């Protein structure tokens, strides 16, 4: 055997690869063929961002393509020069000039600074115009390239609610609602009003338009239009918990006759989306099938937006209106209802007990008893001086009553329907105040 692992034949030494070496060489040569199944799988992928079905998505595609082309004007020459310099100044090239004292070229400086500056100016102009023309809050003035919105055509309004982990779509114009299914007629503008029940999500239909956030207690808007009939996929582009990966829905682009037929099919369902049904639907669930509701409780979306679907809960709009007028004084303390966003409260799991708890102070039992007596005396003194600080005729919500306590008749008689409840002084209170 040769020291190099071959066999010796005759007077001359011939190195013959061992069988294992020949096998390894063959495997290395065939390795590129292993990529063929991967290429076959990738051929089934659809670059929906580059082949959209809506005018807004098409304009966003054009903006993306032009931005990449402008940047490639710099990237391609730089990459080419890297290869050229590495080849020209290789060690074996003895004809390459070596100029260690060279430090300036006016022509080269002009090229290096002018080209990037012009590209930045072009990118800035495209970005500025695209930011305004593709503003999601901006109403559409065209449905396709060269086709303006027809006179008298009103946008189709769709109220969108992102839930755990499903999508609710309400059609105010038709009085219907669906879960995990959306449809719209071709070449008719769509106006989305978007909110969320608990955590922040992102509403995204790549074939229709760009994504936009859905946030609890806030409303975002999106204007778009679908130009080609078909079935497309929408989903949440923002991680929101356990069921996020299945938070997908079907979007149908239909002609007007097909859309009318779809609406009739939804209305044929016997289910109704009232507040009780909504509260049950709001509970976290995964892989929810498509649901249809033939009718929707009036004002449900506004209640979801203001986080007051629950019976007796004060709406955020009412809270802000009261705060704008100066508040309700001390009585507002008894009307608070926390806006809970944590998953335990939303899923019905009490963390600190079933009722609301407040840390007022840390003290001994004797100090607590004396503080209670002093507070009762102060409430009685303030009740005699209390005045109406804000109109309360239209205030709704959970109310301001404290159960189990009597109302001071002289304050109620003064015309304040939400008078503070003052406990009647006891003998212990009187003796404590005398001491």
How would the blueprint of this fold be written?
Layout: E1 8-9, E2 12-13, H1 19-30, H2 36-42, H3 55-88, H4 106-133, E3 142-144, E4 147-148, E5 156-163, E6 166-171, E7 176-179, E8 181-185, E9 190-196, E10 201-204, E11 212-214, E12 220-224, E13 230-236, E14 248-254, H5 256-267, E15 272-273, H6 275-281, E16 291-293, E17 295-296, H7 300-305, H8 316-324, H9 343-346, H10 365-385, H11 409-412, H12 427-434
Parallel strand pairs: 5-9, 8-14, 15-17
Antiparallel strand pairs: 1-2, 3-4, 5-6, 6-7, 7-16, 9-12, 10-11, 10-13, 13-14
Helix pairs in contact: 3-4
What does this entry look like structurally?
The protein has 435 residues and is α+β, with helices and mostly antiparallel strands. It folds into 4 domains: 1-29, no CATH class; 55-93 and 106-133; 143-305, Immunoglobulin-like (Sandwich); 317-434, no CATH class. The chain is 35% helix and 17% strand.
């Amino acid at each position: 055997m040769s020291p190099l692992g071959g066999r010796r034949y005759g007077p001359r030494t011939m190195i013959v690869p061992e069988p294992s070496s020949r096998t390894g060489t063959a495997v290395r040569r065939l390795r590129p063929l292993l990529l063929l199944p991967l290429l076959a799988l990738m051929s089934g992928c659809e670059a929906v961002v580059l082949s959209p079905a809506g005018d807004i998505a098409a304009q966003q595609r054009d903006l993306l393509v032009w931005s990449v082309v402008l940047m490639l004007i710099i990237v391609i020459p730089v990459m080419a020069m890297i290869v050229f310099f590495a080849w020209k100044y290789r060690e074996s090239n003895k004809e390459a000039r070596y100029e260690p004292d060279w430090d300036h070229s006016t022509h080269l400086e002009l090229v290096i600074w002018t080209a990037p500056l012009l590209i930045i100016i072009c990118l800035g102009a495209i970005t500025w115009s695209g930011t305004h023309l593709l503003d999601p809050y901006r109403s559409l003035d065209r449905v396709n390239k060269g086709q303006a919105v027809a006179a008298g055509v009103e946008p189709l309004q769709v109220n969108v609610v992102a839930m755990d982990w499903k999508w609710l779509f309400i059609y105010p114009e038709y009085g219907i609602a669906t879960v995990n299914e959306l449809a719209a007629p071709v070449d008719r503008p769509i106006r989305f009003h978007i909110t969320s029940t608990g955590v922040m999500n992102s509403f995204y239909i790549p074939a229709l338009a760009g994504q936009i956030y859905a946030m609890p207690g806030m409303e975002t808007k999106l204007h778009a239009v679908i130009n080609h009939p078909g079935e497309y996929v929408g989903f949440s582009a923002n991680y929101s918990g356990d069921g996020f990966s299945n938070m997908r829905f079907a979007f149908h682009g239909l002609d007007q006759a097909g859309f009318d037929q779809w609406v009739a099919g939804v209305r044929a369902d016997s289910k109704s989306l009232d507040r009780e049904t909504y509260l049950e639907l709001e509970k976290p669930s995964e892989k929810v099938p498509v649901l249809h509701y033939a009718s929707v409780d009036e004002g449900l979306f506004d209640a979801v937006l203001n986080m007051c679907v629950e019976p007796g809960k004060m709406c955020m709009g009412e809270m802000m209106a009261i705060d704008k007028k100066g508040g309700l004084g001390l009585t507002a303390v008894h009307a608070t209802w926390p806006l809970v966003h944590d998953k335990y409260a939303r899923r019905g799991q009490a963390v600190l007990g079933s009722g609301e708890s407040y840390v007022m102070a840390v003290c001994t039992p004797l100090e607590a008893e004396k503080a209670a007596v002093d507070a009762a005396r102060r409430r009685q003194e303030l009740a005699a001086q209390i005045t109406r600080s804000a109109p309360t005729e239209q205030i709704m919500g959970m109310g301001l009553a404290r159960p189990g306590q009597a109302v001071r008749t002289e304050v109620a008689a003064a015309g304040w329907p939400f008078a503070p409840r003052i406990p009647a002084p006891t003998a212990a209170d009187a003796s404590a105040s005398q001491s």
